[in-house]
Structure formats: structure tokens, C-alpha cells
């Protein structure tokens, strides 16, 4: 069975599939050893999002859950930065950028919403 069959939350699915897109994108970017660091950065930040969301599933507390998602949010924001760098340096064309950037922005919105909702639920207790 696939990872996604065990994890059905929209955030888990979206972050996992985004990580897969990042890995596939990086595989096809041709770069010199000098530029590898930049490509590695988007690879690391883009795949870290899903890993952190996955970790949050077994958080020890609501505060731990918020912390994991907050770090995922930072990684998502960093990924947006690197995607813009790749577009502006013509490693990604406009169409490629728009597609993956849209997914990244949707993921950002989901993370913000999840953090906000969890904080509101804590305040209600």
C-alpha cells in the first residue's frame, strides 16, 4: 500500500505530493556543481514540509503539533523563495513555475489555517 492510503488528511496528502513534485523537478534541472547548492536547498526545504507534517501526526501535545507545523510553514516559505530564484534565473520557465508555485502557496495556506485553528482550539479549553 502507498503512503497516502494510510494518511488521508488533506494537509498530509498535499504536502506529500508536493514533496514528490519537488523531487521530480530537481531530477530534471541541469546545473553545474557551482549551482548544486541552490538546487539542493529547494530539494531540502520542499521535501521537509511533508516530513514535518508527518511528524505532527504523532505530536506529544497541541504545542508540539503547532511547533511541527510552524517549522513546516517556515520550510514552505523558504521553498517559495527558492522557486522564485529558479524562475528568475531561468531554471524554471513561467509555466513550470506557476504550476509548482500554486501548489506551494496552497500548502502555505493550509499550514497557516491548521496552525490558527489549533491555537483557537487551545484557547477555548
Concise overview:
The chain is mainly α and 125 residues long.
Please give a structural write-up:
82% of the residues lie in helices and 0% in strands. It is mainly α. The mean pLDDT is 92.
Descriptive terms for the model:
125 residues, mainly alpha, elongated, single chain
Present the secondary structure layout.
Blueprint: H1 3-6, H2 10-28, H3 36-56, H4 62-88, H5 94-124
Measured by DSSP, the beta-strand proportion falls in under 5%
Query: What is the helical fraction, as a range of percent?
Result: over 70%
Per DSSP, the total helix count is: 5
Task: Choose one word for the global shape.
Answer: elongated
- H/E topology pattern: HHHHH
User: Measured on Cα atoms, how large is the radius of gyration?
Assistant: 15 Å
> Sheet bearing the most strands, described?
none
Low-confidence runs (pLDDT<50, min 5 residues)? Answer: none
Number of strands: 0
- Kindly report how far apart the N and C termini lie: 38 Å
Mean pLDDT: 92
The secondary-structure class comes to mainly alpha
